[in-house]
Design goal:
Chain C: Pfam families: tRNA_int_end_N2 (PF12928). The structure holds 3 protein chains of 3 kinds. Chain A is α+β, with helices and mostly antiparallel strands. Helix content of chain A is about 40%, strand content about 20%. Chain B has a 5-stranded mixed beta sheet, sandwiched between helices. Classes of the chains: A alpha+beta, B alpha+beta, C alpha+beta.
Chain lengths: ~325, ~210, ~450
């Protein structure tokens, strides 16, 4: 879990957007670089809801740019890279299919184990119920017991599910299965690497183009804030003091150019909205324009920001 | 046609005429000052002007129009940083124990040109005005003598901490009030006040 | 200073009206995903996790955070497995629909085969295949299971052809095993026993950008599909270039066009000015603006008559406005999806009237609010949907809220989707003076452009 993927992490450039498909990359970037992105995919285990979403992770161009500038990531034209599937040698294809089959067998066995343990559980429950039926006289005591049983049930299931995710170590511990190995389950792999080789550095695309709000984004990120898209609150970014998994956001962020006219009414609107949800309204921007400095990174150093809150008077 | 006489000028108009302010920025300042004095009961109001700059190429230069500034003493504290509030709570200090603080206000009006440059210039010049005001106020507004020795000790601790964190941003940074007059459709005299601080200062939670 | 609003601001906890909590609004604590019973299909959602205001150096907080991250890691690593029972295989066909060759062509003269293929295709259009959308890119040779009831188009070999969004959604939820075409012979994909399953990553890379499917459109599609809605592409799907071409093909005659255009213009500003002009010259009106009192000199026996005469400002009546066609809209303010509620049965071959019409906007491409022309054209491209029913009849604000035409804007900001319902309310039709006891209905609402979150 605390593993570090190979750097630079390839970010898939698909139709003008930036996507991440590798769970290792997503976990690593969140933990080490405070890059959260937005999950936009369907979770196969819970496909009919929008509260918890799955991979891929969509990155803002700002996030992708920041990672590329730090040499942590690179941009890959994914549709082009996938063309590599056409030229894959037959030998490689066979090897890949064998690997998938082995993985599928592993899951088949795991599921068999799961079924067995579930059957055991339900058998046990039936026996318990029978025992309870016999002990009708002690009805009151039996009832409390039943309540305890049902409350236990979901957590047992949870453990079983978590086991399914656990990596290598459980694989080796699973041969003690009572069910004979069946045909391997088919798998839809999460990524295409393997069978495709890591894209060569010559195929990397240029650093992503970023909007004029990038200096403020990078400035806040350098101060330890986690940033996410601001649509929900009608601003450009939301700034969180820690991982949004655990913390509420502190600021609604809007960037301005240094001499861009600010409609004072917008400050009131933002300040009022922010105060209403216990957040600050933060405006800021780089003092220097792109022509005045060598790189975007230099502009980040010239950023000044201001926090606004309703004064209550 | 009957001869009509214009109605008497309103209190605020008379005030603005009397304060002999020419130019829209200064008229706005006069109106905000009036509001602070009479609606919010501020005292010792003083006004300042940040002169305009002739050039705008240097990002640190002042904008092309002058910016007015007002300072005064509010009857109650307008802003307390959440961590300062926590410290006060832990040390059983209430707002009433503390000496009043002069607060600075930037008067603005809807439709006025404003930018980050304006904001930055105000904050850059602020320490100068704070110093000026301190000299002007002298020692007249010193610490209220606390009778209780325990309270005296708590206050001493508070002021020591306040001195310690000044400049670190731990209890917030330089701050001022942005006052905006609504002049849409002639305006109704409403002035909205917002606390502006330099940098990222976490919001209050109450 | 102390109006009620501000008190609510100062003490949000005391606010009597608690805002609706939409769990999908915020980043969720994945620890709570474990509460979702994976084996039961009950749709009960976990409770919102408690979050902290700011990080502190306690071990407890660090512990909870790494626990949350681990839960997230586990949830996102869940594999997509296809059990034998429910294994549906599909094939990727990057070139779109291709008829099945009844007699497999001999392998040797492949080049000649290719050149004849293009000539052959239009020569034998089968009735069913002719209607297959040119954007399809995946086919299912043996479609079975509940997912194919509302998606896909069948050809005469009983293969089901899927649009990119349909294929991507199915592979995402683990319901479809898509295979790469065989590299040796794309005509007979995967029949050499070496067909490689397409990864999820490959599916996103191949399907997004195919046939007008932007990431934003797909985010809206999959988000609504996950909630059980039925979606279909609307005629506005094609981008401007294609649209124009399409129109040229459709245009019956130049005279038809000439007739229609001035009519459309008439609905705009000119129409309003025109009706004002008509009013001034209305011979039956007792009022006169050129001289004398506004309500005329006649005897008014009822206040209603007076009010009626005072109503001199012309207003827009959505019922009489002539409908426009979708090509008057400007991208992205154009309906791209027709949507039906989960409870509505939708037959693929004959879908009922759409219940919602959705336009998709990306905040990175469209950074400004739509102007009145764009929004007006978008609304006019939707059919008249006047308020109806006993409740609407009774409640004025519900009528205003519902409007006479409506459309849903799905605004997508880097994967975060917000839905806004825009309706044109006919305030002019609500004669308040005819209402004896004043306006009735729910206290809130009654704004011109009603914003409401669709659940």
């Amino acid at each position: 879990m605390e593993s570090q993927p190979e750097l630079p992490i390839p970010i898939s450039y698909v139709s003008g957007r930036y996507l991440l498909h590798s769970i290792e990359a997503v976990t690593y970037l969140r933990r080490e670089h405070h890059i959260c992105g937005v999950l936009i995919g369907t979770l196969p285990q819970n496909p009919q809801q929008n509260v918890f979403l799955g991979l891929p992770l969509e990155l803002m161009p700002e996030e992708a740019r920041l990672l590329v500038d730090k040499d942590v990531a690179c941009i890959v034209d994914e549709a082009k890279a996938q063309n590599g599937m056409k030229t894959l040698l037959e030998e490689d294809r066979r090897r890949y299919l064998r690997e998938l089959e082995a993985e599928g067998l592993h899951y088949t066995r795991l599921q068999g184990d799961l079924k067995d343990s579930k059957r055991e559980q339900s058998l046990k429950k039936i026996e318990e119920k029978k025992a309870k039926a016999k002990a009708v006289a002690a009805a009151a005591a039996a009832q409390t017991q039943a309540a305890e049983d049902t409350s236990l049930e979901p957590s047992q299931k949870d453990t079983a599910v978590v086991d399914l995710f656990a990596s290598e170590d459980t694989r080796s511990s699973s041969p003690s299965t009572s069910t004979p190995p069946q045909n391997a389950m088919a798998i839809t792999p999460a990524t295409s690497y393997p069978p495709l080789p890591t894209p060569s550095s010559s195929s990397h695309l240029a650093a992503p183009a970023v909007p004029s709000s990038y200096p403020l984004f990078a400035h806040l990120h350098s101060r330890g804030y986690f940033l996410s898209p601001g649509l929900r609150f009608g601003c450009q970014y939301m700034a969180y003091p820690g991982d949004p998994l655990r913390f509420h956001s502190h600021f609604l962020v809007v960037s301005y150019d240094w001499d861009q006219n600010i409609d004072l009414m917008d400050l009131i609107v933002g300040g009022r909205l922010g105060t209403g949800v216990k957040k600050g309204f933060l405006i800021g921007g780089a003092q220097k324009t792109v022509d005045e400095v060598d790189s975007e990174a230099d502009r980040v150093d010239t950023v000044r920001a201001f926090s606004l809150e309703w004064a209550g008077m | 046609m009957a001869q009509t006489t214009p109605p008497n000028a309103s209190a605020i108009t008379s005030h603005m005429n009397a304060s002999n302010q020419s130019g829209p920025h200064l008229a706005t300042a006069a109106q905000v000052q009036h509001n602070l004095q009479h609606q919010h009961l501020w005292t010792s109001l003083t006004s300042y002007t940040i002169p305009a700059s002739t050039t705008q190429t240097d990002p640190l230069n002042a904008p092309k129009e002058p910016i007015a500034l007002i300072s005064g003493y509010p009857p109650h504290r307008v802003y307390t940083h959440p961590d300062e509030q926590l410290f006060m709570l832990e040390n059983k200090i209430t707002e009433d124990d503390l000496r009043p603080e002069r607060m600075f206000v930037v008067p603005t009006t809807q439709g006025q040109s404003w930018s980050l440059r304006h904001m930055a210039v105000v904050f850059d010049r602020l320490p100068e005005f704070v110093q000026q005001a301190r000299e002007q106020d002298g020692g007249s507004l010193g610490v209220k003598p606390a009778d209780d020795p325990e309270k005296r000790e708590q206050l001493a601790r508070y002021y020591a901490k306040k001195e310690e964190v000044s400049g670190t941003g731990e209890w917030g940074s330089q701050h001022l009030l942005l006052a905006m007059i609504d002049k849409g459709m002639g305006g109704d005299g409403t002035v909205a006040y917002y606390v502006v601080q330099e940098g990222e200062v976490k919001p209050r939670q109450n | 200073m102390a109006d009620a609003d501000e008190e609510v601001l100062q003490n949000p906890a005391n606010a009597s009206v608690q805002p609706e909590v939409d769990l999908s609004d915020e980043t969720q604590d994945f620890r709570f995903l474990n509460n979702l019973n994976i084996y039961a299909d009950s749709g009960s959602l976990p409770r919102r996790g408690e979050k902290d205001f700011e990080p502190n150096p306690t071990e407890h907080q660090t512990g909870v955070l790494s626990e949350s991250r681990r839960a997230m890691h586990n949830a996102l690593s869940f594999p997509r497995l296809h059990s034998k029972k429910a294994h549906v295989i599909a094939f990727y066909a990057p070139d779109g629909y291709t008829p099945l060759a009844e007699i497999p062509p001999p392998k040797a003269p492949q080049q000649t085969d290719k050149s004849t293929e293009s000539a052959e295709k239009p020569a034998r259009p089968t009735p069913r295949s002719a209607n297959i959308n040119p954007d399809v890119c995946v086919y299912v040779p043996n479609p079975k299971g509940p997912f194919f009831k509302s998606v896909g188009q069948s050809d005469r070999w009983n293969r089901l052809w899927l649009l990119p969004e349909e294929a991507l959604y199915l592979i995402e939820r683990g319901s479809l095993d898509i295979r790469w075409p065989s590299p040796t012979d794309p005509a007979i994909p995967g029949e050499d026993g070496l067909s490689i399953p397409m990864s999820l990553q490959a599916a996103w890379a191949s399907f997004i950008g195919h046939g007008g499917l932007t990431l934003e459109r797909y985010s809206v599609y999959s988000g609504l599909k996950r909630l059980g809605y039925t979606l279909a592409r609307a005629p506005g799907w094609c981008d401007e270039a294609e649209q124009r071409e399409h129109e040229q093909n459709l245009a019956p005659s130049p005279s038809y066009n000439q007739n229609i255009i001035p009519k459309l213009r008439g609905a705009g500003l000119a129409g309003i000015l025109g009706s004002l002009f008509n009013w001034i010259h209305d011979p039956y009106s007792t009022a006169s603006t050129t001289s004398g009192p506004m309500i005329g000199t006649g005897i008014n026996r009822h206040y209603m008559d007076v009010y009626r005469k005072l109503a001199i400002i012309p207003w827009y009546d959505p019922i009489t406005a002539s409908p426009s066609n979708p090509s008057d809209t400007t991208a992205p303010f154009r309906v791209v999806f027709h949507v039906w509620k989960p409870s509505t049965p939708v037959k693929k071959s004959a879908p009922p009237t759409p219940e919602f019409r959705v336009a998709v906007l990306s905040t990175r491409d469209q950074t400004t609010m739509p102007n009145m022309t764009q929004l007006g054209a978008l609304l006019e491209s939707t059919p008249l949907d006047p308020p109806s029913g006993e409740k609407m009849e009774r409640m004025m604000y519900m009528r205003l809220r519902h409007g006479y035409r409506n459309v849903i804007l799905a605004v997508v900001d880097q994967g975060v989707v917000s839905y806004l319902r825009v309706a044109d309310s006919a305030f002019g039709k609500e004669k308040l003076y005819e209402n004896q006891g004043g306006p009735r209905g729910p206290k809130r609402g009654g704004r011109g452009y009603q914003k409401s979150k669709k659940r």
